Amino acid sequence: MNATTIPVQHAPRPTVRPAQAIEEPAWVRWSLIGIALAFLTLFLFVPLISVFYEALKKGLDVYFAAITEPDALSAIQLTLTAAAIAVPLNLIFGVAAAWAVAKFEFRGKNLLITFIDLPFSVSPVVSGLIYVLIFGLQGWLGPWLAEHDIKIIFAVPGIVLATIFVTVPFIARELIPLMQAQGTEEEEAAVVLGANGWQIFFRVTLPNIKWGLLYGTILCNARAMGEFGAVSVVSGHIRGSTNTLPLHVEILYNEYNFAAAFAVASLLALLALVTLALKSLVESKKHNDKENGNEHRGA
């Protein structure tokens, strides 16, 4: 007896175009856009406009007088000095740490990643207090430093150390996922062809990470110039000596010198705008390079 196979008929599946699957009603889209714009207007655009309005309200003469008086110039110089020291050091550390984490396997790798993320989880004020505990007059190394006439706390070295600490993660955290995604095939091919370590870095690794490196450096520099909490603890608020731009703004505001405070604050606002412009430019260049690379591979 032969078994008869009865074909099973399946109900036809509805054809859904990709655009329809994710398309929302118009009122939902416009509501979300409106909420986003309202949020940005209330918490970003209005405060930013008010800073420049208050800074220029009494005229350009008052504005330029506020940003060119000796204490303001000293604050600008110290801010630039701290950033000029902290950013290159973090750049070197960030590249080395990212290269080690992404390209090699070693004992303590997860611990290194944890230490890199530490400044994100520790309050900047706490980090400043740690430096006071170590280098302050009553700290662990304070008596020895005082005996040798070395000033770290309430001096420029302490400000630089605090700035380095709070900006450590920015470059490394930008490069680690990028270098992990790229893998090690190109470096291994360079080794097979006889390249040494520096040749591999400058001719293979660095060209592949240049936009991520620049992006992380821009963010690191912006944070270094705008840092307040950690620097406030270790600076001592000495006018004309250990005040950075954010600290100088606080002092002027506490003295009810609002025009000068907003004038100096506008410099930090301009720094933020320049940072956003550079960030957008780097992202655009990175996107264009990626598209060009895809075209070359497709060809």
Helical stretch tally: 13
Order of helices and strands: HHHHHHHHHHHHH
Overall, the morphology is globular
Kindly report the average pLDDT value: 86
Q: Can you describe this structure?
A:
- The chain is mainly alpha-helical and 299 residues long.
- The chain is built from 13 helices and no strands.
- It is globular and about 65 Å long.
- The termini are far apart.
- The mean pLDDT is 86.
Write the layout of secondary structure elements.
Blueprint: H1 18-22, H2 26-56, H3 60-68, H4 70-103, H5 109-121, H6 124-135, H7 142-147, H8 156-182, H9 185-192, H10 197-226, H11 229-235, H12 245-254, H13 258-298
How would you sum up this structure in a few lines?
The chain has helices spanning 18-22, 26-56, 60-68, 70-103, 109-121, 124-135, 142-147, 156-182, 185-192, 197-226, 229-235, 245-254, 258-298. The chain is an all-alpha fold. It is globular.
Provide the descriptors you would attach to this structure in a database record.
single chain, 78% helix, mainly alpha
